[in-house]
């Protein structure tokens, strides 16, 4: 399922290769982190806000970041 714009999520699992996982962790995207989706591109790429910063994730990387919706 795709998360919509302005939805607050919590990262549950990052299912990527170790190098990508390390990069994402450096951006604050790791299990337990809270993110807000700012934009979703036609190709599935997403722009997220995490810890007051924004990060662009390609569709391939975004599909590896498992989240749950926060209320």
Distance between the termini: 17 Å
Largest sheet: 5 strands, antiparallel
Structural class: alpha+beta
- Shape type: globular
Proportion in helices: 10-25%
Number of helical runs?
A: 2
Task: Point out poorly predicted stretches.
Answer: none
- Our Rg estimate from Cα atoms comes to 11 Å
Number of strands: 5
Report on this model:
There is one protein chain. With 71 residues, this protein is an alpha+beta fold. 20% of the residues lie in helices and 41% in strands. Strands 4-3-2-1-5 form a 5-stranded antiparallel β-sheet.
Any chance you could write out the topology, listing elements then pairs?
Elements: E1 8-14, H1 18-26, E2 34-40, E3 46-50, E4 53-57, H2 59-63, E5 65-69
Antiparallel strand pairs: 1-2, 1-5, 2-3, 3-4
List descriptors.
globular; five-stranded antiparallel sheet; single chain; alpha+beta
Question: Quick recap of the structure?
Answer:
By secondary structure, this protein is of the alpha+beta class.
């Amino acid at each position: 399922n795709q998360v919509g714009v302005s939805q607050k999520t919590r990262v549950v699992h990052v299912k990527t290769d170790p190098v990508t996982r390390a990069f994402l962790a450096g951006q604050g995207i790791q299990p337990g982190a809270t993110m807000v989706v700012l934009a979703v591109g036609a190709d599935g790429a997403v722009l997220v806000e995490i810890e007051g910063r924004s990060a662009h994730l390609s569709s391939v990387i975004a599909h590896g970041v498992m989240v749950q919706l926060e209320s």
